UniProtKB/TrEMBL annotation:
GO terms for molecular function: phosphotransferase activity, for other substituted phosphate groups. InterPro entries: Bact_transf, EPS_sugar_tfrase. The keyword Magnesium does not apply. Keywords: Membrane, Transferase, Transmembrane, Transmembrane helix. The chain crosses the membrane at residues 12-29, 41-62, 74-93, 113-137, 260-284. Residues 258-434 form the Bacterial sugar transferase domain. It comes from Erysipelothrix inopinata. This is Exopolysaccharide biosynthesis polyprenyl glycosylphosphotransferase. It is a multi-pass membrane protein.
Length: 447
């Protein structure tokens, strides 16, 4: 009962924040739009547009995740969601203002009001995020976490998970890190969550059963087969429950609608980003006078080789291998392009051509693929779909994410594919710009 009241408090807090964001938009535009000053068709449609788009954007960028994220990421993601909601609702309002009683033709006006609304909303979001996290941790204490490893656990993975949990001290408190062989002598009475790192399936099954029975949450690092199996369809043959795993890639219908989405987004993206192309081209030429574009052979669907387009970020005529930290081959302009991920904009041409998709596994260098496949033959599973400009691995990972983890994230996308997932990942791509680590290179020894 007590936990339900806490959850209700947080839910009501979020609803109040969303209501305030709507009120700012509505009240400011009401002053200059007669149709919003009383209950009318314009009022109802504007309200519904704002509400529906906000719900969709919240689903994409996160439901004002206080208690789950730090305040700054909440502010950034919620701001993107609300700004996109404002823009769509603003356009809808301008369309409805095009009538015999108002504007005879469609006009873009009252932009100063829109900017003021966005400014006020950002202030509300910023205050609400910090106050919300403060309130959340007044109501909830940190989860007590036990990390269980095996003698085969990867040290780097273990270190990353421990560092992640330690960075969220208000959310998690790591009680201990133990070997699986010691779990029988460990007291679980104070544990809220178990994190398994590199545990074999049989051992993990035992821990999952134990945790489920005792109301303890469990997280684990997946193997490649886990991702494939978990994405399977749950069916019943007669009275026998089965999980059906298909291995055919995307269906004809999925490929058709994916291609339509690719063409719409790439052509629109080419038009909107054209000023960036001009600026980047001039900057590259002024920097060293070399070529603007860089072309290189990469793999895409079914192992087909194509030439990817990118803005050149490295000096010309240098040895070709994956970028490293503090790589002296990268030009001054290249550093800016890589940091903002603008070096990949020319891949829009590959998408229009049909070699790539908006969303899919990152197109890897041929040399890298051969090396990865020699150590991890399953790496070729990524080639079940076209290479993509963005994707789960590009958003959540880094340049130096391990090949196995890249593969697992790509399989999460492939095996759970839907057109809505593509739209969601395209919209989420903006969040990469604030992740400094997403553009990190490999350590020198791993090049």
């Amino acid at each position: 009962m007590k936990n339900n009241l806490k959850s209700l408090t947080i839910l009501l807090y979020k609803l109040v924040v969303y209501y305030l964001l709507y009120t700012v938009f509505f009240q400011m535009f009401e002053l200059h739009n007669v149709g919003l000053q009383y209950v009318s068709r314009t009022t109802v449609i504007t309200t519904m547009t704002f509400a529906v788009i906000l719900v969709l954007m919240v689903f994409v960028y996160g439901n004002f995740s206080i208690g789950k994220q730090k305040s700054k990421p909440i502010i950034f993601s919620t701001t993107i969601a609300v700004v996109l909601t404002d823009i769509v609702t603003y356009i809808q309002l301008m369309v409805m203002n095009t009538n015999p009683h108002n504007n005879q033709t469609f006009r873009i006006e009252q932009l100063d009001i829109l900017l003021y609304v966005i400014l006020m909303q950002v202030i509300i979001i910023s205050i609400a995020a910090y106050v919300g996290n403060w309130l959340y941790f007044k109501l909830y204490t940190a989860e007590h976490v036990l990390i269980v490893k095996s003698y085969e656990s990867d040290d780097d993975t273990l270190r990353k998970i421990h560092r992640y949990l330690s960075n969220y001290k208000l959310q998690y408190r790591v009680v201990d890190v133990i070997d699986y062989s010691k779990i029988n002598s460990f007291n679980f009475s104070d544990i809220d969550r178990v994190v398994c790192v590199g545990i074999h399936n049989e051992e993990r099954s035992f821990l999952t059963d134990f945790c489920y029975k005792n109301g303890i949450s469990i997280s684990f690092t997946p193997e490649i087969t886990d991702v494939v199996e978990l994405a399977g369809e749950q069916v019943v043959y007669d009275d026998i429950p089965l999980i059906v795993v298909e291995s055919k890639g995307l269906s004809f219908e999925q490929k058709f609608f994916k291609r339509i989405l690719d063409l719409i987004c790439s052509i629109l993206g080419l038009i909107l980003s054209s000023p960036i192309w001009i600026i980047a081209g001039i900057a590259i030429k002024l920097n060293d006078g070399g070529k603007i574009f860089f072309r290189q052979e990469r793999y895409t669907e079914n192992g087909k080789v194509f030439k990817v387009f990118k803005f050149r970020t490295m000096k010309e005529n240098v040895e070709n291998y994956s970028s490293t930290e503090n790589d002296d081959r990268i030009t001054a302009v290249g550093k800016v392009l890589r940091k903002t991920r603008m070096d990949e904009l020319p891949q829009i041409l590959n998408i229009i051509k049909g070699d790539m998709s908006m969303v899919g596994p990152r197109p890897e260098m041929l040399e890298n693929v051969h090396q990865y496949e020699s150590d991890l033959p399953q790496f070729r599973y990524r080639l079940k779909v076209k290479a993509g400009l963005t994707g789960i691995a590009q958003i959540e990972g880094k340049y130096n994410t391990t090949p196995k983890d890249k593969l697992i994230m790509d399989l999460m996308y492939i095996e759970n594919y839907s057109i809505w997932m593509d739209i969601k990942l395209i919209l989420r791509t903006a969040t990469v710009l604030v992740k400094k680590e997403s553009t990190e290179g490999f350590n020198t020894e791993s090049k």
